[in-house]
């Protein structure tokens, strides 16, 4: 039996204002932050947790987030760095369907897509203030079609007909792979914990906590469906980290990201 391995794949960076990153606290000013994907080589298959943003989408819809992403930071380029092709991924897990977490789904044409049932529902029927978050619907051609969204012909999107498997509650989806409900940022947000043989478990907060500074200040981001639930989810992550002696890996923290092992350097 092969041991589980975890790879972190660098998907480039974006910019938001400090008052968005630290809601009602700031300070104002540009905060540049990383977006990354997690690949888990597990005996039951290859899983990918979140797929980053699509550069063309951000340039078209949110150019003020100033994306920096080179060719090697797109999903096919990222996977090539660890010797894989997009078709090698068996399962995609999306923490939630904001554009910076699902932009690469369309490349993963062989994968079954796993998400929280409430998230799939909300992404198709979001609140007006969630519109930009849920602006990249290419993860579900079906929702795109239902909403009448038309895009220029795209050879990648043309072959993409994902199969969804929706979950609710906390779930151990494969041995040592845990999804924990952490709602608030969005309706059906999941964080992921991976248990490994040779080190402490890795707990990927996703957007339930952007950074160490958010955690230290107990300060949520300004992007949320329910701020109180969002804060409770941050508290939950802290409690989970203590309970499992897990290390927290934040979703959008440039300082922390510099200390993470990326590319071909895996955790096991
Ligand atoms: Zn995000």
Could you characterize the architecture of this molecule?
The chain is of the alpha/beta class. 25% of the residues lie in helices and 25% in strands. The chain is globular, with a radius of gyration of 17 Å. The model has no long low-confidence stretch (mean pLDDT 97). Bound molecules: zinc ion (ZN).
Cα-to-Cα separation, first versus last residue: 13 Å
How many domains make up the coordinates? Answer: 1
Strand order in the sheet with the most strands: 1-2-3-4-5-6
Which CATH-level-2 architecture?
4-Layer Sandwich
Mean pLDDT: 97
What attributes characterize this protein structure?
268 residues; alpha/beta; Metallo-beta-lactamase, Chain A; 6-stranded mixed β-sheet; 5-stranded mixed β-sheet; 10 helices; binds zinc ion
Summarize the structure.
Helices cover 25% and strands 25% of the residues. The chain has 268 residues and is an alpha/beta fold.
Secondary structure elements and pairings:
Elements (H helix, E strand, L loop, with lengths): L4 E13 H4 L8 E13 L2 E5 L5 H7 L13 H6 L10 E3 L5 H4 L9 E5 H8 L16 H6 L8 H4 L4 E5 L3 E4 L2 E5 L8 E5 L7 E5 L5 H6 L9 H18 L2 E4 L3 H4 L11
Parallel strand pairs: 3-4, 4-5, 5-6, 10-11
Antiparallel strand pairs: 1-2, 2-3, 7-8, 8-9, 9-10
The structure holds zinc ion.
Zinc ion (ZN) binds next to α4.
């Amino acid at each position: 039996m092969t041991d589980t391995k975890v790879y972190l794949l660098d998907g480039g960076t974006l910019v938001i204002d400090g008052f968005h990153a630290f809601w009602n606290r700031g300070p104002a000013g540009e905060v540049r932050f990383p977006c990354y994907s997690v690949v888990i080589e597990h005996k039951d298959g290859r899983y990918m947790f979140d797929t980053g943003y699509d550069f063309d989408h951000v340039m078209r819809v949110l150019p003020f987030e100033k994306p920096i992403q080179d060719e090697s930071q797109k999903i096919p380029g990222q996977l090539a760095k660890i010797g894989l092709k997009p078709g090698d991924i068996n399962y995609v897990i999306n923490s939630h369907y904001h554009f910076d977490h699902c932009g690469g789904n369309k490349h993963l044409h062989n994968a079954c897509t796993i998400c929280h049932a409430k998230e799939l529902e909300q992404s198709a029927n979001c609140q007006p203030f969630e519109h930009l978050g849920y602006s990249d619907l290419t993860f579900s051609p079906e929702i795109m079609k239902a909403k009448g969204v038309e895009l220029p012909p795209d050879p990648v999107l043309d072959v993409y007909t994902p199969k969804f498997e929706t979950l609710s509650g906390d779930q151990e989806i494969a041995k040592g792979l845990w999804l924990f409900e952490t709602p608030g940022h969005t309706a059906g947000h999941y964080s992921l914990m991976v248990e490994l043989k040779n080190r402490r478990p890795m707990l990927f907060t996703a957007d339930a906590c952007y950074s160490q500074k958010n955690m230290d200040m107990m300060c949520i981001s300004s992007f949320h469906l329910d701020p109180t639930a969002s804060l409770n989810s941050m508290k939950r992550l802290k409690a989970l980290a203590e309970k499992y002696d897990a290390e927290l890996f934040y979703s959008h923290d440039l300082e922390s990201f510099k200390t993470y092992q990326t590319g071909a350097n895996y955790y096991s």
